[in-house]
Structures are given as structure tokens and as C-alpha cells.
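Milestone M4 deliverable, item 7.
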Amino acid sequence: MKKYFYLCLIALGCMLTFSACGSDDDPTLEDIERAAEQGDADIDATLKDNGNELVIFYTSKLGSYTATAKGVYTFDGSSDDAQCIRAILTETYPSAEIAKAVFDQEDEEDKINGTVKLNGKQVIIDFTDDFKGMSKYEIKMILEEEIKYLQEEMKH
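Output delivered:
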């Protein structure tokens, strides 16, 4: 259940933190707040099985603002019973200001021990400790449920 909670946090982070697309000006948090008031939100998530990796892509849109995230779960083999050995989420934003705002919301201990890092326009989160040892099948089921949940939420 803790792992499903983390996936919900990832999706929520994508839905609540957006950055501009198609503009030369970097967006500000005020721009995002203005767009949020208009309420035009959408999220898309796709899951790919690349043998010894599961890769999930999130794209969240709020008006003309977009946030993306890519989760990569690496396994010690390609079968459904292969064990997770690494889990990394990379959120990419066209605005370094917004990436820093997302990073600033993370737990200080996670920043100190390196499980959350800021790299320019990216926030990189290492979830390995939360998923290590889980089977590929288990993680695939969690991610598929997450996609269904997000699709249902967007209908409301």
C-alpha cells in the first residue's frame, strides 16, 4: 500500500505542478495558478515493458502548461517474477524555477541522503528502497491500476 501511495504522490505532483510549453518565456508559479483557475486539466500515462525495465510516462496538461515525468523500474531479469533492483522517477520542466519549487517541497532528509535531487529543470527521485525486491508483475499491476485511477479522476 505504501508503494501505491508513492505512485499517487507522483501523479499528484504531475497534476499540480505545470510548466509552459511553446513559449520563449519561462512560466512562473503565478502563471500556473492563473491557468489552474480556468480548470482545463488532463493527464495521460502510458506503460511500456522493455524486457528488464518497466517505463511509465506521465504527461499532465493544464491549459497551455505541461509537466512530464518518466518512471523507470529496472529488474534483474525480464520475466514477471524478476525482482526490482532500481526505481527512478525523473520529472522534467521547461522552467528551472518550477523545478526548484517542486524540489523545495520535498523532505529535507531525502535531499540530504540523495534520494531527491535537483538538476536544472529536472527533479529526480530515487524510489529504489520502496520497490526493491518487488516482482515485475507486482509493480506492473500497481502501475496499471495507477493509470486506470488517473483516467477515472480526469473524467470527473
